[in-house]
Amino acid sequence: MEYHHPPVIIPTTPNNVLAHQAQDWKIMQVINNKIRDDIVKKYAQYTKRVNGEMIKVMYEWFERGDRRSRQQSSYGSQRDKHFRLEINKDTFDRYNDRLPHVRRLTFEQFCELLAPIITGQYNDYQLRKTFEKLDSDSDGYLNQQEIENLLLVVGRAESNYKVYDMISQLSSRGKLNFEEFKRFINDGFARELLMPSYDNEYGSR
Protein backbone atom coordinates (compact mmCIF):
# COMPACT_ATOMS: atom_id res chain seq x y z
CA MET A 1 0.00 0.00 0.00
CA GLU A 2 1.32 3.40 -0.92
CA TYR A 3 2.03 5.53 2.12
CA HIS A 4 0.50 8.99 2.24
CA HIS A 5 1.71 11.42 4.85
CA PRO A 6 -1.11 12.91 6.91
CA PRO A 7 -1.83 16.61 7.13
CA VAL A 8 -0.26 18.91 9.66
CA ILE A 9 -1.69 21.67 11.76
CA ILE A 10 -0.42 24.85 10.14
CA PRO A 11 0.26 27.60 12.70
CA THR A 12 -0.61 30.81 10.89
CA THR A 13 -3.73 32.42 12.30
CA PRO A 14 -5.98 31.57 15.25
CA ASN A 15 -8.79 30.83 12.79
CA ASN A 16 -6.91 27.92 11.20
CA VAL A 17 -8.74 24.66 10.74
CA LEU A 18 -7.11 21.29 10.23
CA ALA A 19 -6.33 20.49 6.63
CA HIS A 20 -8.34 17.72 4.99
CA GLN A 21 -6.75 14.39 5.85
CA ALA A 22 -4.80 12.56 3.16
CA GLN A 23 -6.00 9.29 1.67
CA ASP A 24 -5.63 6.23 3.93
CA TRP A 25 -5.63 8.33 7.11
CA LYS A 26 -8.73 8.82 9.21
CA ILE A 27 -9.04 11.69 11.63
CA MET A 28 -10.29 10.35 14.95
CA GLN A 29 -10.42 13.31 17.28
CA VAL A 30 -9.93 17.06 17.19
CA ILE A 31 -9.75 19.42 20.13
CA ASN A 32 -9.74 23.10 19.20
CA ASN A 33 -9.58 25.20 22.35
CA LYS A 34 -9.68 28.92 21.65
CA ILE A 35 -8.86 30.50 24.98
CA ARG A 36 -9.05 33.98 23.48
CA ASP A 37 -8.24 35.57 20.12
CA ASP A 38 -4.48 35.19 20.44
CA ILE A 39 -4.26 31.93 22.41
CA VAL A 40 -5.27 28.74 20.65
CA LYS A 41 -4.59 25.09 21.41
CA LYS A 42 -5.28 22.38 18.84
CA TYR A 43 -4.94 18.62 19.14
CA ALA A 44 -5.64 15.97 16.53
CA GLN A 45 -5.32 12.22 16.26
CA TYR A 46 -5.09 10.38 12.93
CA THR A 47 -5.08 6.63 12.35
CA LYS A 48 -4.16 4.40 9.44
CA ARG A 49 -5.66 0.94 9.00
CA VAL A 50 -5.02 -2.01 6.70
CA ASN A 51 -7.80 -4.59 6.40
CA GLY A 52 -9.46 -3.03 9.42
CA GLU A 53 -6.39 -3.28 11.66
CA MET A 54 -4.83 -0.08 12.96
CA ILE A 55 -1.15 -0.05 12.00
CA LYS A 56 -0.20 3.58 12.61
CA VAL A 57 -1.40 6.48 14.69
CA MET A 58 -0.30 10.09 14.61
CA TYR A 59 -0.87 12.72 17.26
CA GLU A 60 -0.43 16.44 16.65
CA TRP A 61 -0.50 19.27 19.14
CA PHE A 62 -0.29 22.96 18.33
CA GLU A 63 -0.34 25.78 20.84
CA ARG A 64 -0.22 29.47 19.99
CA GLY A 65 1.17 31.55 22.80
CA ASP A 66 -0.02 34.86 24.18
CA ARG A 67 1.03 37.44 21.62
CA ARG A 68 -0.25 40.37 23.62
CA SER A 69 2.23 39.60 26.39
CA ARG A 70 5.00 39.89 23.80
CA GLN A 71 4.41 43.64 23.64
CA GLN A 72 5.13 43.85 27.36
CA SER A 73 8.12 41.50 27.25
CA SER A 74 11.80 42.28 26.90
CA TYR A 75 12.30 39.17 24.79
CA GLY A 76 12.75 39.70 21.07
CA SER A 77 10.54 36.85 19.93
CA GLN A 78 7.96 34.31 20.99
CA ARG A 79 7.50 30.79 19.67
CA ASP A 80 4.44 28.78 18.85
CA LYS A 81 4.58 25.17 20.02
CA HIS A 82 3.97 22.39 17.52
CA PHE A 83 4.50 18.73 18.40
CA ARG A 84 4.00 15.54 16.41
CA LEU A 85 4.27 11.85 17.29
CA GLU A 86 3.74 8.95 14.90
CA ILE A 87 3.65 5.42 16.32
CA ASN A 88 3.92 2.24 14.25
CA LYS A 89 2.44 -1.10 15.25
CA ASP A 90 5.67 -2.84 14.20
CA THR A 91 7.66 -0.81 16.73
CA PHE A 92 5.06 -1.46 19.41
CA ASP A 93 5.16 -5.21 18.75
CA ARG A 94 8.96 -5.24 18.82
CA TYR A 95 9.44 -3.46 22.15
CA ASN A 96 6.24 -3.82 24.19
CA ASP A 97 7.83 -6.55 26.31
CA ARG A 98 9.76 -3.72 28.00
CA LEU A 99 6.44 -2.74 29.63
CA PRO A 100 4.94 -6.00 30.97
CA HIS A 101 1.49 -4.56 31.76
CA VAL A 102 1.32 -2.98 28.29
CA ARG A 103 2.29 -6.22 26.55
CA ARG A 104 -1.20 -7.58 27.16
CA LEU A 105 -2.78 -4.67 25.29
CA THR A 106 -3.50 -4.42 21.59
CA PHE A 107 -1.80 -1.63 19.68
CA GLU A 108 -5.08 0.27 19.55
CA GLN A 109 -5.61 -0.05 23.30
CA PHE A 110 -2.06 1.18 23.91
CA CYS A 111 -2.69 4.27 21.78
CA GLU A 112 -5.85 5.01 23.76
CA LEU A 113 -3.75 4.70 26.91
CA LEU A 114 -1.40 7.43 25.65
CA ALA A 115 -4.10 9.99 24.85
CA PRO A 116 -4.36 11.50 28.37
CA ILE A 117 -0.59 12.00 28.47
CA ILE A 118 -0.49 13.79 25.14
CA THR A 119 -3.64 15.90 25.38
CA GLY A 120 -3.44 16.67 29.09
CA GLN A 121 -7.20 16.08 29.20
CA TYR A 122 -8.17 13.31 31.57
CA ASN A 123 -9.99 12.36 34.72
CA ASP A 124 -8.22 10.68 37.63
CA TYR A 125 -9.62 7.26 36.72
CA GLN A 126 -8.25 7.43 33.16
CA LEU A 127 -4.86 8.69 34.26
CA ARG A 128 -4.59 6.19 37.12
CA LYS A 129 -5.17 3.41 34.60
CA THR A 130 -2.37 4.76 32.39
CA PHE A 131 -0.05 5.17 35.38
CA GLU A 132 -0.61 1.58 36.56
CA LYS A 133 0.02 0.15 33.08
CA LEU A 134 3.34 1.99 32.84
CA ASP A 135 4.38 1.03 36.40
CA SER A 136 6.04 -2.25 35.43
CA ASP A 137 7.05 -3.33 38.94
CA SER A 138 3.78 -2.12 40.53
CA ASP A 139 5.59 -0.20 43.27
CA GLY A 140 3.43 2.92 42.93
CA TYR A 141 6.11 4.95 41.15
CA LEU A 142 7.34 5.56 37.61
CA ASN A 143 11.12 5.43 37.59
CA GLN A 144 13.53 6.59 34.91
CA GLN A 145 13.81 3.16 33.29
CA GLU A 146 10.04 2.78 32.98
CA ILE A 147 9.76 6.17 31.28
CA GLU A 148 12.65 5.33 28.95
CA ASN A 149 10.94 2.03 28.10
CA LEU A 150 7.80 3.95 27.14
CA LEU A 151 9.89 6.11 24.81
CA LEU A 152 11.34 2.99 23.23
CA VAL A 153 7.89 1.48 22.64
CA VAL A 154 6.69 4.61 20.82
CA GLY A 155 9.88 4.81 18.75
CA ARG A 156 11.45 7.79 20.50
CA ALA A 157 14.98 8.18 21.79
CA GLU A 158 16.09 10.76 24.33
CA SER A 159 19.26 11.00 26.38
CA ASN A 160 19.24 9.41 29.82
CA TYR A 161 20.26 12.76 31.24
CA LYS A 162 17.23 14.56 29.79
CA VAL A 163 14.83 12.03 31.30
CA TYR A 164 16.68 12.19 34.62
CA ASP A 165 16.66 16.00 34.60
CA MET A 166 12.90 16.17 34.01
CA ILE A 167 12.17 13.71 36.80
CA SER A 168 14.51 15.59 39.14
CA GLN A 169 12.58 18.81 38.60
CA LEU A 170 9.48 17.11 40.01
CA SER A 171 10.82 14.66 42.57
CA SER A 172 13.88 14.43 44.81
CA ARG A 173 13.60 10.63 45.01
CA GLY A 174 14.31 10.04 41.30
CA LYS A 175 10.88 8.59 40.49
CA LEU A 176 7.34 9.90 40.17
CA ASN A 177 4.32 9.07 42.27
CA PHE A 178 0.84 9.56 40.83
CA GLU A 179 0.51 13.23 41.82
CA GLU A 180 3.96 14.00 40.42
CA PHE A 181 3.00 12.14 37.25
CA LYS A 182 0.09 14.57 36.89
CA ARG A 183 2.53 17.46 37.06
CA PHE A 184 4.77 15.64 34.59
CA ILE A 185 1.86 15.86 32.14
CA ASN A 186 0.38 19.23 33.09
CA ASP A 187 3.74 21.03 32.98
CA GLY A 188 4.45 19.68 29.48
CA PHE A 189 7.37 17.37 30.33
CA ALA A 190 5.63 14.26 28.97
CA ARG A 191 4.68 15.94 25.70
CA GLU A 192 8.21 17.25 25.23
CA LEU A 193 9.67 13.75 25.70
CA LEU A 194 7.14 11.88 23.58
CA MET A 195 6.54 14.31 20.73
CA PRO A 196 9.28 15.91 18.61
CA SER A 197 8.87 19.67 18.63
CA TYR A 198 8.54 21.92 15.60
CA ASP A 199 9.01 25.46 16.89
CA ASN A 200 7.63 28.31 14.83
CA GLU A 201 9.11 31.69 15.56
CA TYR A 202 6.83 34.65 15.06
CA GLY A 203 8.67 37.42 16.86
CA SER A 204 9.53 39.18 13.61
CA ARG A 205 5.99 39.15 12.22
UniProtKB/TrEMBL annotation:
The keyword Transcription regulation does not apply. This is EF-hand domain-containing protein. PROSITE patterns: EF_HAND_1 (PS00018), EF_HAND_2 (PS50222). Gene3D superfamilies: EF-hand (1.10.238.10). Keywords: Calcium. One of its GO terms (molecular function) is calcium ion binding. The keyword Hydrolase does not apply. Residues 126-157 form the EF-hand domain. Pfam families: EF-hand_7. InterPro entries: EF-hand-dom_pair, EF_Hand_1_Ca_BS, EF_hand_dom.
